[in-house]
Structure formats: structure tokens, C-alpha cells
């Protein structure tokens, strides 16, 4: 019998399995499809900074903890697996392009939560990135923002989990639970059952059915995010460039990611001409010379969003051995190290590095969702 069954093989599930196995726990991970091939794979890999001493909200505290863990985790995975996950500090420019009120709000937030923010003059902004459109006249810089290559990081985690003895099982959608004495006794798939001492729901946008089946309550909604990939012979910019929820992410090999839409369309993953056109227009408005870059491909992912955009993290009240870590929306990759550390502490009954009450699923239990 496993000590823990992790349900969901995205970056959250893999990270939790890796952490638990590192403490000697016997872990089985069940994934409905291919491990690491859903929303975690589809993201652009942006890793914003954070400062635990300055964090004023639960999300910023979790982000700050994750920020501190990324470099060490990257080194550990590379040394054990030989996989380079592409982690590097590239810096980020948040530029004003349309909504000045929002930009001012973002600047104030980063000054409060991080402190090391460089508000730039127009000349300084264009000194950093000469290829920016002359229409862009205002921005601030986060020098400690990083990035990672999502598929590479997931590949490293898969290998790392296997090395630590995690039993990785793909193609096993979990359809329900059996309960006994106020606890989960068995996980049910279409043609097999699995048992463990403890269970953790980490299956992202698909979590609602299991939360309902278990009586946990709560709801997670899929939000489609489309991304376009271009290839440039020579990178015209080196910083990540953000405008609210949209961004340009340059890779060292000349690839450029343009994202992302936020679309409430259920479980539809297909790209649309409207979505792709909007992203390409956005990119060339910021960096005009991207109009001659080669179009490589486009894809989308289904990001898991809760009603208030805070993830569910912790034990399920009234079910002795069931836990949840899902609903990270756009922050799954970035917050995966901190979430995994927190879930390891919760499941193995260790001291917690932060208060988890704001992430409790109980805030949405027995409540009619407004999603």
C-alpha cells in the first residue's frame, strides 16, 4: 500500500510527489492522460520574484517562498537527472500600454511586496530594450524575475520522481472514491482500484468532479489560455515584457512566446483565429520588428481557476485523509515549489512555513458558486 496517492500529473502533482518521496514516503501518482501534458506544459514559464518579509497577502507569501526555492530546486534536479529546465533570471519590464490606472496599481503593488522596483524614464526604458515601439514611454523593471521552460521542468520532475521511487501511472482517470469511517479507503478508476493511507487531489481544471464526489465542495473552472510561438533569427529583446495579463517571453534560442488569452469556454482547447490574431497584433504593437519573425505554432491550455482565484491548499475538512492542492490559475508553475513544500508539511504533519487558512476549501463549501 502506498503512503500517499497523488491524483494529477501536472506540475503541482509531480512537485508534491517529488517532495513527499524525498522524505521517504511511498507515493503513487495517477494521471488521466499523459503526465505533464496539460496546462502545466502549456504555460510560458514566467517566475516573478517575491520577498517573504514584505508579503502582505497569502498569494504573495506563497509566491515569495517559491521564488526562494526555484534556484535550489533547479540545481538539485539538474544534478540528479541531467535535465536543464531552462531556469534563468531574465528580468521583466512591465510597460504602460493602454490602462494607466492598472499600470500604476501594479507599480504600487510591486513596490510594497518586493521593494526592488526600478521605475524607468522613457530613455531608460528604451536603453534596456531599443526594439520597443516608440509609443511605449513608461515602464518599470523587476530585475529578479526569472523564467523556466515548462516542458523541460516537467521532464526533470518526472525523472526525479522515478528516481525517488514514485510509481507514475498515466492513462488512469480517477472517477471516484470509496469511503469508510469518515475517510477515503479506495480510489476508483475505470478498470482498477488503488489504496493508500492518504490521498491528494491535484488534477487542476478537472478537479471539480472529484471534489463533488468526495463531498469536499468547492469548484474549479477551466479558463483557456492561447499562446503563440515565433522564431527570430536574432532576439530583438531580452527581458520578459508584460502588459497586465499579456506578455512576451524571449528564449535564448530565438523563440518568443506571446500570451495569453483568458477565455471562459469550458473544456475547449482549440486555438481560434481571433485569439491568435489578437496576440500577434499585441506583439507587433510592442516590438514592431516581430512582424517579420517566423510563425512556428500556437497552442492552448486550460488553467484551473477557483471562484476567488486563490488555490485550494490543505486538508479537506471532515474527511480524515483527503487533501487538495489545485486551482492555481496562472500561477501553477511559479508556485509549484512552495505548494509542494507546504503540502509535504501538511500531509506529513510537519511545521508549516505559513498560515494556510486563506487557502482552505472550506471557504467555498456549501456555497452556491458564482463562477
Q: Can you describe this structure?
A:
With 371 residues, the chain is an alpha+beta fold. The chain has 2 domains: 210 residues, FAD/NAD(P)-binding domain, CATH 3.50.50.60; 136 residues, D-Amino Acid Oxidase, subunit A, domain 2 (D-Amino Acid Oxidase, Chain A, domain 2). It has 9 helices and 20 strands. The strands form 4 sheets. It has an 8-stranded mixed beta sheet with strand order 6-7-5-15-16-17-14-18, with helices on both faces. A 6-stranded mixed beta sheet has the order 9-2-1-13-20-19, sandwiched between helices. Strands 3-8-4 form a 3-stranded antiparallel beta sheet, with no helix packed on it. Strand 16 and strand 17 form a beta hairpin. The longest helix is centred in the first third of the chain and has 24 residues. The radius of gyration is 21 Å and the shape is globular. It starts with a strand and ends in a 24-residue tail after the last helix. Pathway: Cofactor biosynthesis; thiamine diphosphate biosynthesis. InterPro entries: FAD-dep_OxRdtase, FAD/NAD-bd_sf, Gly_oxidase_ThiO. One of its GO terms (biological process) is thiamine biosynthetic process.
Task: Indicate the percent of residues in helices.
Answer: 25-40%
- How many independent structural domains? 2
Largest sheet: 8 strands, mixed
Q: Looking at this structure, what is the CATH superfamily of the largest domain? A: FAD/NAD(P)-binding domain
What general outline do the C-alpha atoms trace?
A: globular
Question: If strands are numbered along the chain, what order do they take across the biggest sheet?
Answer: 6-7-5-15-16-17-14-18
Number of helical regions: 9
Structural category is alpha+beta
Q: How many β strands by DSSP? A: 20
Q: What share of residues are in beta strands?
A: 25-35%
**Strand and helix order:** EHEHEHEEHEHEEHEEEEEHEEEEHEEEH
Unreliable parts: 367-371
Average pLDDT reading:
96
How far apart, in Å, are the first and last alpha carbons?
Answer: 38 Å
**Rg, Å, rounded:** 21 Å
**At CATH's second level, what is the architecture of the largest domain?**
3-Layer(bba) Sandwich
CATH-defined fold name of the largest domain: FAD/NAD(P)-binding domain
What is the CATH level 1 assignment of the largest domain?
A: Alpha Beta
Amino acid at each position: 500500500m502506498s503512503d500517499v496517492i497523488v491524483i494529477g500529473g501536472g506540475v503541482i502533482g509531480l512537485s508534491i510527489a517529488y517532495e513527499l518521496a524525498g522524505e521517504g514516503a511511498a507515493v503513487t501518482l495517477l494521471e488521466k492522460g499523459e503526465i505533464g501534458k496539460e496546462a502545466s506544459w502549456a504555460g510560458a514559464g514566467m517566475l516573478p520574484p517575491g520577498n517573504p518579509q514584505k508579503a502582505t497577502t497569502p498569494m504573495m507569501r506563497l509566491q515569495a517562498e517559491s521564488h526562494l526555492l526555484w534556484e535550489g530546486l533547479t540545481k538539485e534536479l539538474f544534478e540528479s537527472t541531467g535535465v536543464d529546465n531552462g531556469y534563468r533570471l531574465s528580468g521583466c519590464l512591465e510597460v504602460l500600454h493602454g490602462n494607466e490606472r492598472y499600470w500604476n496599481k501594479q507599480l504600487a503593488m510591486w513596490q510594497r511586496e518586493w521593494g526592488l522596483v526600478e521605475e524607468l524614464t522613457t530613455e531608460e526604458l528604451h536603453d534596456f530594450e531599443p526594439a520597443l515601439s516608440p509609443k511605449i514611454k513608461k515602464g518599470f523593471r523587476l530585475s529578479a524575475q526569472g523564467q523556466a521552460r515548462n516542458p523541460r521542468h516537467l521532464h526533470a520532475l518526472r525523472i526525479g520522481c522515478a528516481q525517488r521511487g514514485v510509481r507514475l501511472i498515466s492513462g488512469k482517470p480517477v472517477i471516484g472514491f470509496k469511503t469508510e469511517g469518515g475517510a477515503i479507503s479506495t480510489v476508483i478508476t475505470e478498470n482498477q482500484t488503488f489504496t493508500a493511507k492518504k490521498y491528494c487531489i491535484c488534477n487542476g481544471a478537472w478537479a471539480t468532479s472529484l471534489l463533488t464526489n468526495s463531498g469536499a465542495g468547492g469548484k474549479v473552472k477551466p479558463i483557456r489560455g492561447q499562446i503563440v510561438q515565433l522564431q527570430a533569427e536574432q532576439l530583438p529583446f531580452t527581458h520578459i515584457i508584460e502588459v497586465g495579463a499579456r506578455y512576451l517571453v524571449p528564449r535564448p534560442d530565438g523563440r518568443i512566446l506571446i500570451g495569453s488569452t483568458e477565455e471562459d469556454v469550458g473544456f475547449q482547447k482549440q486555438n481560434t483565429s481571433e485569439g491568435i490574431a489578437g496576440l500577434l497584433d499585441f506583439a507587433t504593437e510592442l516590438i514592431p520588428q516581430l512582424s517579420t519573425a517566423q510563425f512556428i505554432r500556437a497552442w492552448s491550455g486550460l488553467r484551473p481557476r477557483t471562484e476567488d482565484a486563490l488555490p485550494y491548499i490543505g486538508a479537506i475538512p471532515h474527511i480524515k485523509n483527503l487533501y487538495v492542492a489545485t486551482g492555481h490559475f496562472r500561477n501553477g508553475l511559479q508556485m509549484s515549489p512552495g505548494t509542494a513544500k507546504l503540502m509535504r508539511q501538511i500531509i506529513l504533519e510537519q511545521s508549516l512555513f505559513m498560515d494556510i487558512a486563506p487557502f482552505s476549501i472550506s471557504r467555498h463549501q456549501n456555497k452556491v458558486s458564482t463562477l
